[in-house]
Amino acid sequence: MAFMKIYLLPLLVLFLGYYYSTDEEFRPEMLQGKKVIVTGASKGIGREMAYLLSKMGAHVVVTARSEEGLQKVVSRCLELGAASAHYIAGTMEDMAFAEQFVVKAGKLMGGLDMLIINHINIDHMSFFHGNVHSVRKTMEVNFLSYVVLSVAALPMLKQSNGSIAVVSSMAGKMTLPMTASYSASKFALDGFFSTIRKEYVMTKVNVSITLCILGLIDTETAMREVSGKINLPAAPKEGCALEIIKGTALRKDEVYYDASSWKPILLRNPGRKIMEFLTYRKYNLENIVNN
Length: 291
Description:
Elements: H1 2-20, E1 35-39, H2 44-55, E2 59-63, H3 67-80, E3 84-87, H4 95-109, E4 114-117, H5 132-160, E5 163-169, H6 180-202, E6 208-214, H7 220-226, H8 237-249, E7 254-257, H9 262-267, H10 270-280, H11 285-290
Parallel strand pairs: 1-2, 1-4, 2-3, 4-5, 5-6, 6-7
């Protein structure tokens, strides 16, 4: 016990302080002239991100299923000062569309600096009763299409030393009833993109990946889904959109946003971070990279 008090606890505090610290402060001009994709941008958090990026002078290409909704978003983006604004409507259930969308968006902007992956398959809150088709669809839209988008964007992001924002959920860090399919897809995002982030470090790929872990946000869709089922305060979508942009611009590993201040603290899981750090040191990087 004396050893822990004298050595281990101070080392843990120093490690966590280093791990979660950010030397640089966010400035809106960081986004001026940047070329940004936002998916799921016809409403909710995605729409708010498109508007904020426009105010900061970014080039934006937005996508969602609703062409009418996207037209309104693009019009407003131009009013707010976007360097340019375009939309490409389509569904992320179609992996061919997801791949082609990134290529088209890159051509419209002449490159890509930031990919913000925000869309979801709306999986109504209910107990799981064996609907495997629903699980498959949710995994394809909420996870597999994210992988497809990031793979398609990587060549452009390597050229710009760019960033990927993966919008996830606290349901991808903890288990909650009535969210089995949704939660599975969000846990998958953490497993895949947190691993890829480590691989980028090992192979010196200067593309950051920011996993955005969100609590209940006051979007119209979320409020409708939890109505009468969960009594939780919802955080504002405008503040959520800003935190995602800030964290991605600062190249943070993770961003937490919730109405409660204590949930993010508990979910950060320092034990996992320490184990990953210690295990990473056991890899023979020279042999791995050379082979």
